[in-house]
Amino acid sequence: MNPNIPFQTIDWSTIPKTEHKGETGTAFWQTVQLPGLRIRLVEYTAGYVADHWCRNGHIVHCLEGEFVSESEDGNHSYLTSGMTYVVTDELSSHRSVTKNGVKLLIIDGDFLKFQEERLS
């Protein structure tokens, strides 16, 4: 799917926050849903540990603070303000952990769907 998204601005102050409990701590999401595209401002409170391993693809940009993206295989990626990670659906089982809290911009959607390489 390749949706045509007209030019628009997002005033995050008008987007309501939804609360999502972690294993510990809480995540607050502000979500804009467009055809095939989801854009979120996400804040994790101090001591947040995600309550699940995620296999979805994301582009995650750290706006403030720092966090660890833990992989189920034991790898850890440390991200601080100004850093970004990118992963396609089904290519990682990961979860977020933060000691002091963090604010993230997270983008995901159809463009991150896993596609088998086709041999010709």
From TrEMBL:
Record-linked InterPro entries: DHCW_cupin, RmlC_Cupin_sf
UniProt protein name: DHCW motif cupin fold protein
Lineage of source species: Bacteria, Pseudomonadati, Bacteroidota, Bacteroidia, Marinilabiliales
